[in-house]
Amino acid sequence: MRGGMLIPPYHRDNEESSLQEGLLIVYAEVVQPHFKAHQQIVRYFGTEILLENGEINREALGNIIFSNPEKRQLLNSITHPEIQKEMLKQILKYFVLELIKAEPCDS
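User: That's the sequence. What structure does it adopt?
Assistant: Structure tokens below.
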């Protein structure tokens, strides 16, 4: 139980830290130019948030969203579903790979 009494505080911190790190990694993936979230972010926030290489300038986007709660909510509505999809894909991929490893070979 995360954040509850069943996990000692030092474990909660490690678990939450790992979860946050994982979310940041997935976030970094889904905002790459070839992902749907990137296209939507550029459409709503404009090309001025892009770096020369086409990636999102996190500092420029941060300046916009942290000064405007509505824009932060818009960004969340774009990124959260894509993060959830990517996490599910990774979980399913891991699950399938583990199933394949566990299957006995028929000889």
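Confidence is low (pLDDT under 50) at residues 1-11.
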